[in-house]
Write a structure and sequence with these properties.
It is built from two helices and four strands. By secondary structure, the chain is of the alpha+beta class. It has one domain. The longest helix has 18 residues.
Length: 91
């Protein structure tokens, strides 16, 4: 972030969980699949929503000083990339 700012570059920060379809498990953190009470990903599941809230809140809290309104280079935080709109149900 410091290098981007020093060179007057803007940053779009992908915070996940889905970064690239080519990665194993679609870029989702592997530990998510081990949560017994999780029914599906990207759905109206309270466990999924709780875990996503925690992930996103943690990243945003760490990056707050780097956001554009606070003088940093980050102009956008991107949750998903190449998301097709389908839900992943666990069996």
């Amino acid at each position: 972030m410091d290098t981007a700012k020093a060179n007057d570059l803007k940053v779009v920060l992908r915070i996940g969980p889905y970064i690239c379809g080519e990665y194993y498990f679609g870029g989702l953190p592997l530990w998510l699949r081990h949560l017994d009470e999780l029914a599906c990903f990207r759905c109206d599941d309270p466990v999924w929503e709780r875990e996503m809230q925690q992930i996103v809140s943690t990243v945003v809290a760490k990056m707050t000083d780097q956001l554009w309104p606070n003088g940093g280079p980050i102009i956008m935080l991107q949750i998903e990339n190449e998301y097709t709109g389908s839900q992943t149900y666990l069996e």
